Amino acid sequence: MNAEPAVQLRLLDLQALDARLDQIEHRRRTLPQLARIAELEARYAGVRDRVVAGETEVSDLERAMAKAETDVEQVRQRAAKDQELLLSGRVGSAKELENLQREVESLSRRQSDLEDAELEVMEKLEDARSALATVTAERDGITAEIDRLKAERDAAWAEGDRDKEWVGSERTKVLLDIPADLLALYDKLRADHNGVGAAALHQRRCEGCRMELTPTDIGRIREAAPDEVLRCEECRRILVRTPESGL
């Protein structure tokens, strides 16, 4: 294959632009914010479940608290009525008076037991509300951090898109100077060699594989016509001669 030396040099321009595009895509995929967002989102799922469990516990305890308060109030009212009746003098017989007295004492013990149960539920409810407030704050903090990181990610992606657009426009200009057959060879080699299809010969070293050429290879290159498209014997990439080739 043959191409004018100036055209071959344009291959290096194309390679530089393609490398820039690869770098942009690499940065897009490897932004540190992405790993942190994934980590926080996984953590958020667990914290969210704890919030739901905490809300459920608080709700259950609030219902239990309401029931305990109702039970205590009912016993308190019943005891108050019996106590009022006991003191009213309306109870005629000693037997009825004795039974009423025993009922007042029983209600008093019942009220004490219910109040103890109510206090226990109240303490559990306070603990549950405190725990819920803590885990809710943790969830909200994670959400805020994810939002901040996503904003940074989106800003970085937008900057990358702007760079990509500019590089793409420059690449389009370079493509106009490269024949189809040479471009096809370059694209194939780039696909086969980690994104590098053409490399400069710099100070007798291939910039693609970083190998120094042998004297035999240097002699072959010296004898080659200026428009001959050369290949590195080591990595088989297109080898472009430049004023800094050291020939």
UniProtKB/TrEMBL annotation:
Residues 205-239 form the C4-type zinc ribbon domain. Residues 14-193 form the CT398-like coiled coil hairpin domain. PANTHER family: PHOSPHOLIPASE C-BETA-2-RELATED, SCAVENGER RECEPTOR CLASS A MEMBER 3. It holds the Pfam family CT398_CC. Gene3D superfamilies: 1.10.287.1490. Residues 51-152 form a coiled coil. The keyword Transcription does not apply. Keywords: Coiled coil. It comes from Longivirga aurantiaca. It comes from the Bacteria. This is Zinc ribbon domain-containing protein.
